[in-house]
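Contributing new records

If you add data, match the layout below exactly. Sequence lines come first and carry their own label; structure lines follow with theirs. Keep one chain per record. Anything else will be rejected by the validation script.
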Amino acid sequence: MEVTHVMATPRVLILRAPGTNCDQESAFAFEQAGARAELVHVNRLLENSQLVADYQILCLPGGFSYGDDVAAGRILGNQLKQHLDATVNDFKAAGKLILGICNGFQILLKSGVLLPDDPATGAPATLTWNDSGKFEDRWVRMRVASEKCVMLQGIESLYLPVAHAEGKFVTRSNEILQALDVAGQLPLRYAAEESNGAAQIPYPANPNGSLANVAGVCDDTGRVFGLMPHPERYIDPTHHPRWTRGPQADKPDGCRIFETTVNYFS
């Protein structure tokens, strides 16, 4: 008789560092979606990298890790690259999920976890200063452009807040951008109500000037995902800026991402 093993309650490691400030909100969002979340400081992981073996989801939340010194996500990204590279790669190879939100997205790119560095040319892509030259704090519309990312399965569009100064996605070359697009690794794009999503959309619908309107990127497995918007900031109807006026979705858009991520293990 065939026996199927179902994981009833996936465990989530929320990785913290000095300056992280969206860790508790992210943990709460995962717990609302049915997971068990634990806040873990990066120093604990540096002391004992085997801690991650007890978890199925690794989340790098938003904030300003190490004060965004040098560049957003650079210091924590270097810590992952220099000291925890094998640990994170083993986590990925085990079929587990990694989610980076805003500063977490920046960290995933700076560490090479999301898009591996080329030995000759370095990082294929990064997140740089917004075209507006200022911190952008607004709600944006997005569309799901591919089925590659497992954390976006069943989702067609999203409406979520962004809050960042370095959120413009750029690639080292147009060839890299095109290759990522063809591979389905640019699954989340900013969208405008009057646009069909095919062309580069203007500010403020694209709040940072990202190439190809990219709001989120996944790795070649679809199990590592980074996005600039904050899904943890829209998990209750009252979080919506127009919650007292106008129609509302059956479920807040942020909930859909966390539930899809948790349900991956059901």
